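[job 4417] fold queue: 2 targets
>>> target A
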Amino acid sequence: MDQLELFDLPNPCIGVCENNSRGYCLGCLRSRDERFNWHNKPVEERSRILKLLENRRARRDAARLAGKPDQSLEADIGSTPDMFGF
């Protein structure tokens, strides 16, 4: 049994369901595809998405601390470009 199967991965939704102009949720930072059918996605995919969200939050928070306005974001490492690459 894979260790990921032993633990339920939380849904990152925080109830702030508002999209920006590029389709990313302002609350949880997920794309539409990442949000769609969250509970039906394989554990490995949900785990990968959660790791992407950690990177997006870190970049967003670093940009805010540096006083930079929200801007179009760089790509996550190893994925397609998205808007949370602060």
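>>> target B
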Amino acid sequence: MSINVEPIKKAINDVATLEVATLTNANDNKFDLTNGSNESVFEAIRSNLSQSDLVAYTRFELDGDAVNFVNNKEELTALVEDHSILVESALETRKTLFNTIYKTLKDVIK
């Protein structure tokens, strides 16, 4: 039996890194969030970060590396809390996806 492992590799790479950025003043940005893949949207956001104010940024990598930045301005407290909720939700989604990939691989390898 031949197994196409490319989709599995892509899914594992997607699960291996989590990146969440919360920005303000997004109206000044010149990127289209409605067109293209997630990769192209993230690239556009990264290339335009200087046009926005960073409220919070979190990045986790499967190998254990992590970065967390939170702006401590009092007027941004609600946005920081929203960012935390997004991170928790994204982590839970990644966990579910990882478990699905694991179970699929386990069933295929039997």
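[job 4417] complete. Note on B: The beta strands are 17-24, 53-61, 66-70.
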